[in-house]
Structures are given as C-alpha cells and as structure tokens.
Design brief:
The protein is of the alpha/beta class and 610 residues long. The chain contains 19 helices and 26 strands. The structure holds 2-deoxy-2-amino glucitol-6-phosphate (AGP).
C-alpha cells in the first residue's frame, strides 16, 4: 500500500523523508518520490522502483530545504512508472501533492479541467486533485484544498504544499489513514506510525472528513467544513526494534517465532483461571448486548477471514450462538439481512482493509452493533467500530500474516469462552480447563518452533511442486485454507484448501504422484477417523501425504509420507498449534524458491484500495 511522509521543521527534510519511506517499505510499493521546498523552489525526485533507486538518484543532488513530502506508490490508476509516481504537481509546479486512496470521480473532473486548459502529465487520479486545487487556489492553500475535497468522491489521505506558503503543510483524510507526528519545533504527516516513531511518540490520528494545517510550531485540526476539532494527542508504544528484523533473515520468520510472546500478550490480563472465564476490557460496555446477542456476523478478508471461520466453530461450540462468516468484499455489496440482536465482528490486522471497513460501515447503517478485532492501535476499523478488542500481537511487517492470525484466533477463543460462561453453557470445570490450557499454549507453540528443523528438509522435497492441496475437517478446516494461502501468497505455488470430505466432490481428480496433500489430522474423535479415510483415498491414488498430527500419533503415521507433530492440546485450541508448521513450510519453500518473502509480488500488507 502507498506510504505518505511529510516534514516541516528546522532540519534538512530529505534524510527524514527517505528514512520515513524506508520505514514503510514493508507495506509494498512499486515507485517512490520526494519533493523538497527551499526558497520558493520545489525540487521533485521520483523513481519507478525501490527507495534504494531513489537514494541513488539523489546521490550528489543537494535537495536543500526543511519542508518536504515523500511517497511510496502501490499502483491503482496508471501503471507503475516514474511519471505516475508521486509527488504530483499542478500545471505551474507551485502545488505539490501526495495521495493514498482512489478519487472515484477523477475522470469527470479531469475532463472539465482539461477543457479549461489544464495539462496533465500522468494517468493518475491523484494528479487530477493537484490540478483541481490549482483551479480553486486564490492565495490560500488551505482553502483551496478544502474546496477541492468538497468536490471529490472516493478515498484519500493527502499531504499538500504550495511554494508560496512554505510555512505550512496541509493534511486531509477520507478513508485512507493519516497520522500527525508532533515533534519539538517540527511536525510530521504520515500514513503509518513506523514513519515517525524515530522522531516522536506523540501523535494525533486524523479521522475521516478531517483536515489539518501543519506548521513547525503546531497543528490546527478541523473538519472539511472548517469546524474545529479538538486534537487528541496519543502515545505510540511500540519501538523501532520491534519493527526491525531482530536478527532474522525476514520479518515473516521473526513473526512466526514471535508467536509464543504475541500469544502471551494477546491473552495477558484477560483470563480468570479460578473462575474459568475470560474478560475483555474493550467489550465491557457491551455486556448487555452480548448477553442478548442473537447472531454474530464475522467480517474479514484473507487470513482474517480464516480466523473468522475458526471463530464460528468456537462461538457456536462454546457459547451456542449462531455465527455467519462473510467475505467483507461480498457482504458490502449484497443486501445483507441485519436483524435486531445482530453483532458484527470486523477482524483486521491492519484495521485499514477497505473492504472490511466498508462492510462494517454498511452493517452499522443497517443497525448492527459493530465490534472490531484489530492489531494496529488507532487504526480506522478500531476507531470507527463501536467497541472491540486489540489483539496486541505487535507490529506485523511481513505481508503474509502469521502471528496476527494466531492472536486473532486466541482473542476469538477468549470471546467464545466469555460468552459461554456468561450463558452458563460452559461449566466451571470446563472453563478452568480451557483457561489453564490457554495459559499453557505459548509454551506449546514454542515446542513446535523448537522442533521445526525437519520442516526445512520437507520444504526441499517439495520446492518444485506446481500444486498442493490442504485438507482437514471441523475447526481445523480453516487452518487448511490458511496453510494453502500462506504457500500460494509467498511461494507462488498454486495451493487450495478444502474440507477433507469435499475430496470426493471434485478435488480427488487432481490427485497423482506429483500432488503433495497436506492433512491436518489432530486430536482424536469422530472427525479424526473420517480424516483417516480421506488419507486412505489419497494414498490409493498415489498422492503424497504430509500430515500434521499430535505428538505420539501411532495411526496416521502408518499412512503418511511425512509427519509434522504438534503437542496435544484441547481440540478447540488445536488450530493455533496446527497452523505453525504450515507457516514454516510455506516460508522455507518460498525462501528456497528465491521469492521475496516479506514483500511478495502483487501483494500489499494492507489493501486500502478496492
Ligand atoms: C494474509 O497473509 C494476507 N496478507 C491477506 O490475506 C490479509 O490477511 C488480508 O489482506 C486482510 O488484511 P487485514 O487483516 O489487515 O484486514
């Protein structure tokens, strides 16, 4: 996703802008650029490619100036090239703009402006906004931006400067995150906390429909209609070390190995072992609604949607409450039926996924109570939902979500436990059993990680696979989907997850000696027996069987070509352990294939455009 950094203060802007863009590289981008204002002149340098190329281009150039804007672009309108890279300017080069989001009515505006003589240099929607501001500029850049934004439809996070007004930057947001960093005689605009955390921990989150005039002395925050907004200064807690790789070759591997700690953090202070219960502070104001809830609708995308599917099993089994899980992108364009007593749970690591945000807004309009389960504090979904629970997994930099997934599932487990105990559906004994097992879980995750050397060997055997199937049943069926997503999104091997029983309805036609089939076959019980017969079906067709099983399993080992063992745990907690070998298998295969594990092609960490 695009990254925005703006600086105004006393220091040279260029190194601050470049460093800020580097801190946001993980978001995925295809071009980068900066603009620096000095003595009424604006210097713009931009490249199609990575920040390293931008730095190379800047070598030797002295971009003096202590006011500037920087941007990394993930193309939405117009191909990824130098021309379409931001910053963009108006005809005269007096106005400079950087933009995240999509201006939906850019084309009609462009036609009108072209008719009145504006010359466009790029194919982007963003450049149109720069020309619209120019058209409306009458000596006050703040007013011109205000007027221009009142004419656009769509989403934006923008930062704007005018060479005749060097003492100010203008920020505005609608649907694309922006944060203001407050320093000493210097201030920042950014789309991501990571870009400012080197300089300040004091931030203001802009809300949708708000603008800010940012000078080196301070910030004036208003709504688009100029009505004042009282600034709420918040503190950033995570530090750069958490953002850095910590000695691992990739953020993804670091985050896989962080899971004992991230799970501990997700659970911390939320268990009542004696009472066999859990408590979620963020939902304290909604106890009445939770007690009366008739249905949950879980909204999410990708991995978060997979976590939601596990949430369905958890809440229906532990609390006996109906749950439906929806792809947010589908929900928002349907005519969803929201009856009284409906609560939506919007699950999003970034808290900025536009489809999930839009679906949540749609549900709110239709009368649902909207709760969020997010990782990024202060993210839009977290702030726009009426309440919710932070998963506290810490910054997740790798595009492929790992620790956020297990923490999402942990929080959903805490919610299901809370609801089940509140409704008397879970006995004290069962509740105490679950709370104790949750306390033990991080240690068991560590055990899986400690015994993961064989996974690299396994990865070497299947590094050249063209396809893979992931199968399971019950609460681990979503883990099959997640394992397949991990493999396909970072190694580019085609992989699909299915309920194991679906085999005979089609996928079994794919089985041959070249098809690795990963089964999650943990914990005994009726489903376990059924999975064994599915394994036999694959074996009979010469499929290669890789099975995730409980330590000491004596049955599956007889059928499988490869075994990945996890410690025994309560069956409803097994997804958190079962997914880890699959995360590692995908990671090692992707590394062996020379893929860009942390920034896979075509993907972004947070999809804030449709
Ligand atoms: C997961 O590995 C992917 N990066 C992607 O599917 C991701 O889960 C999805 O885009 C949702 O992101 P969110 O959790 O930030 O909303």
């Amino acid at each position: 996703m695009c990254g925005i950094i703006g600086y105004i203060g006393k220091r040279e802007a260029t190194p601050i802008l470049i460093n800020g863009l580097k801190r946001m590289e993980y978001r995925g981008y295809d071009s980068a650029g900066i603009a620096v204002l000095h003595n009424g002149n604006i210097n713009i340098t931009k490249v199609s490619g990575k920040i390293a190329q931008l730095t190379e281009r800047l070598n030797g150039l002295t971009l003096n100036g202590s006011v500037g804007l920087g941007h990394t672009r993930w193309a939405t309108h117009g191909e990824p090239n130098e021309t379409n890279a931001h910053p963009h300017t108006d005809c005269s080069g007096s106005i400079v703009l950087i933009h995240n989001g999509i201006i939906e009515n850019y084309y009609t505006i462009r036609v009108k402006l072209a008719a009145s003589g504006h010359i466009f240099r790029t194919q982007t929607d963003s450049e149109v906004l720069a020309h619209l501001i120019e058209e409306l500029y009458e000596g006050d850049i703040e007013q011109a931006v205000r007027s221009a934004l009142s004419k656009v439809k769509g989403t934006y996070g923008i930062a704007v400067m005018h060479h005749d007004e060097p003492e100010k930057l203008i920020a505005a947001r609608m649907g694309s995150p922006l944060v203001l960093g407050l320093g000493a005689a210097e201030n920042f605009i950014a789309s991501d906390l990571a870009a400012v955390v080197d300089h300040t921990r004091n931030v203001i989150y802009l809300n949708d429909g708000e603008m800010a005039v940012v000078t080196s002395d301070g910030v004036i925050q208003t709504k688009l209609d100029k009505s004042p907004v009282s600034a709420k200064v918040e503190q950033i807690f995570f530090n750069i070390a958490e953002i850095e790789k910590g000695g691992y070759p990739h953020f993804m591997l670091k985050e896989i190995h962080e899971q004992p700690n991230s799970l501990t953090d997700s659970i911390r202070g939320r268990l009542l072992p004696e009472a066999g219960a859990s408590k979620l502070g963020g939902l304290a104001n909604f106890e009445e609604q939770l007690a009366a809830v008739k249905r949950f609708i879980i909204l999410g995308c990708g991995t978060s949607w997979h976590a939601g599917l596990i949430g369905e099993y958890l809440i229906e089994e532990l609390a006996g409450i109906p749950v439906e899980v929806e792809y947010a992108s589908e929900f928002r364009y349907r005519e969803p039926i929201i009856e009284p007593g409906t609560i939506t749970l919007s699950i999003s690591q970034s808290g900025e996924t536009i489809d999930t945000l839009a679906a949540m807004r749609e549900a709110k309009v239709r009368g649902a109570l909207t709760l969020g389960i997010c990782n990024v504090v202060g993210s839009t979904i977290a702030r726009e939902s009426e309440g919710g629970v932070y998963i506290h997994a810490g910054p997740e930099i790798g595009v492929a979500s790992t620790k956020a997934f297990t923490s999402q599932v942990a929080v959903l487990t805490l919610l299901a436990l809370h609801l089940g105990r509140q409704r008397g559906r879970i006995s004290l004994d069962r509740g105490q059993e679950l709370t104790q097992e949750l306390i033990n879980l991080p240690k068991k995750v560590q055990q899986v990680l400690d015994n993961s050397d064989r996974i690299l060997e396994l990865a070497k055997k299947y590094v050249d696979s063209k396809n893979a199937l992931y199968l399971s049943r019950g609460i681990n069926y979503p883990v099959a989907l997640e394992g397949a997503l991990k493999l396909k999104e970072i190694s580019y091997i085609h992989a699909e997850g299915y309920p194991a029983a679906e085999m005979k309805h089609g996928p079994i036609a794919l089985i041959d000696e070249n098809m690795p089939v990963v089964f999650i076959a943990v914990n005994g019980g009726a489903i376990y027996e059924k999975v064994i017969s599915n394994i036999e079906e694959v074996r009979a067709r010469k499929g290669v069987i890789i099975a995730v099983v409980n330590e000491g399993d004596q049955v599956i080992t007889r059928y499988a070509d490869h075994i990945l063992e996890i410690p025994l745990t309560d069956h409803i907690l097994s997804p958190i352990l079962a997914v880890i070998p699959l995360q590692l298998l995908a990671y090692h295969i992707a590394v062996l294939r020379g893929c860009n594990v942390d920034q896979p092609r075509n993907l972004a960490k947070s999809v804030t455009v449709e």
